[in-house]
Recover the amino acids of this structure.
């Protein structure tokens, strides 16, 4: 029984010498992060398809059961809106091939302008993806959340190919005005979508955005503890990503979320032990 947890990145200045050893060469940073969390959002692939050799380094630094949820390139999802994307998709799939089983899902994050009327385009795109890869789709257009028929249409398309609908829960974040520079920045950029807690597959994926105050972040995820515990009892294997606007404590918060779910489901496998920030000594 596995619950994977992670963050939006595997390196962050606020973690250096506090959560992760510092300095670390690039080829060691992911390995140290993987001592804290066993999943990560592949956000960097949105901006550029990485070199295959770079991806091979990611694989070397992680165990085979580590989960990458790799975001499709912006040129595919936003610029070309899933149309005429054979070449960039071929390059992307070739680049991530070294991840092997670590490539948990292809994350299709769609722009807010991608509306329910565009679902046929999504359907055609998903049907062309290799069966070897799972897909996870994140939509942001309000119509998918307010129109029951639109939601059912999307769910039907996803069910056809065994794809998951990824909720990005920002309800706790938008519950009260921002109080820090990082929160004010996120306030203008993050989507305001209604809460969704339904899973379509045996491997649901959740993105949760809290606040820079850890106590408020923890308070806001309470509903997810029961949801995720329920999924585990049903035999599902979820992945949950914990975000805050500044992400300063994201790894410790992700581990706390895992611990709190484990309090409800004691048979849940524990997370790995973090690599010590400082070398251990005898005295």
């Amino acid at each position: 029984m596995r619950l994977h947890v992670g963050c939006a990145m595997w390196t962050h200045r606020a973690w250096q010498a506090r959560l992760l050893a510092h300095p670390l060469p690039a080829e060691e940073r992911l390995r140290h992060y993987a001592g804290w969390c066993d999943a990560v959002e592949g956000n960097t692939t949105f901006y550029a398809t990485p070199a295959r050799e770079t991806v091979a380094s990611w694989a070397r630094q992680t165990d085979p059961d580590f989960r990458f949820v790799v975001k499709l390139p912006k040129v595919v999802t936003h610029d070309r809106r899933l149309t005429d994307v054979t070449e960039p998709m071929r390059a992307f799939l070739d680049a991530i091939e070294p991840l092997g089983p670590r490539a948990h899902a292809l994350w299709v994050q769609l722009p807010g302008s991608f509306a329910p009327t565009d679902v046929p385009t999504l359907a055609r795109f998903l049907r062309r993806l290799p069966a070897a890869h799972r897909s996870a789709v994140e939509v942001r257009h309000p119509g998918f959340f307010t129109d029951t028929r639109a939601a059912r249409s999307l769910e039907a398309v996803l069910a056809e190919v065994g794809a998951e609908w990824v909720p990005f829960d920002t309800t706790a974040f938008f519950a009260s005005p921002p109080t820090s520079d990082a929160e004010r920045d996120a306030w203008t950029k993050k989507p305001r979508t209604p809460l969704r807690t339904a899973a379509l597959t045996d491997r649901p994926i959740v993105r949760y955005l809290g606040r820079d105050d850890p106590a408020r972040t923890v308070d806001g995820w309470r509903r997810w503890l029961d949801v995720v515990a329920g999924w585990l009892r049903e035999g599902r294997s979820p992945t949950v990503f914990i975000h805050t606007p500044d992400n300063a404590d994201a790894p410790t918060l992700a581990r706390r979320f895992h611990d709190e779910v484990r309090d409800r489901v004691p048979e849940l496998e524990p997370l790995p032990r973090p690599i010590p920030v400082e070398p251990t000594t005898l005295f």
Q: What stands out?
A: The mean pLDDT is 96. The chain has one domain: 4-264. The chain has eleven helices and nine strands. The beta strands are 4-7, 39-42, 67-71, 103-109, 135-138, 164-165, 168-169, 205-209, 239-243.
